[in-house]
Amino acid sequence: MSNGVTENTAEHRFELPLEDGEIAAAYYRVDENGNLVLNHTEVPSEFSGKGIGTKLATGAFDLIRASGRKAVLTCSFMQHFYAENRDYSDIVVG
């Protein structure tokens, strides 16, 4: 149920492929407790307003949940997404 979102561990990001080879990405770092600190989200401007960020966040949260990990949200977009999707409270810490 990742909606086409995959995790690129080498680049420390979740990726959603878009048209023309573009990607939307949610970047993270791993903290001292093994949590994924989601710190930046990028959606190419030509895809703005099309729900791409929400699809990316949903897929990333689903992958984090499926892997048994937890997320810390420092990215304002991810914080906003979580505020409207509290059903992910089992994976969000901090």
From TrEMBL:
The lineage of its organism: Bacteria, Pseudomonadati, Pseudomonadota, Alphaproteobacteria, Rhodobacterales. SUPFAM superfamilies: Acyl-CoA N-acyltransferases (Nat) (SSF55729). Residues 6-93 form the N-acetyltransferase domain. It comes from the Bacteria. InterPro entries: Acyl_CoA_acyltransferase, Gcn5-rel_NAT, GNAT_YJDJ. GO terms for molecular function: transferase activity. PANTHER family: BSR4717 PROTEIN (PTHR31435:SF10), PROTEIN NATD1 (PTHR31435). Pfam families: Acetyltransf_CG. Keywords: Transferase. This is N-acetyltransferase. It comes from Paracoccus aurantiacus.
